[in-house]
Amino acid sequence: MALNPYLIFDGNTREVVLYYAEIFGLEEPHFMTFGSMQSEQLPPGSENLIMHTFLEIAGTKLMFSDNFPGAPYQVGNNITLAYVSSNESAIRDAFQKLKDGGSVQMELQETPWSKCYGSLTDKYNIQWQFSHEA
What we know:
Layout: E1 2-9, H1 13-23, E2 32-33, E3 50-57, E4 60-66, E5 79-85, H2 88-99, E6 103-111, E7 114-121, E8 127-132
Parallel strand pairs: 1-4, 5-8
Antiparallel strand pairs: 1-5, 2-3, 3-4, 6-7, 7-8
């Protein structure tokens, strides 16, 4: 089980991640793009934006993404907490409790990268992502 910081950028995630990888002497990570999900809902030209990648720095997984294409971006709201666990029951329980008084961006559901993924903003305006990791 892990609680990972998730940094969101406005179209320059690849540049940021490659910079940090060089600084910390890490291999170039795998980049999952929005276009790899083959969604018809993407604005033209956003296919190469980064949907997800991560670097492990000093034992901590630092996760990165470009802002979802077409969604508003605001510096200061570009950090989320990612609750990653192999315990699906714990994910569902925490999600249900945190959504009380908050707002759900994506209900828990199966995605190509997780059998149980969802996101919400809690009542204190903290953004959370939940992901099952086998």
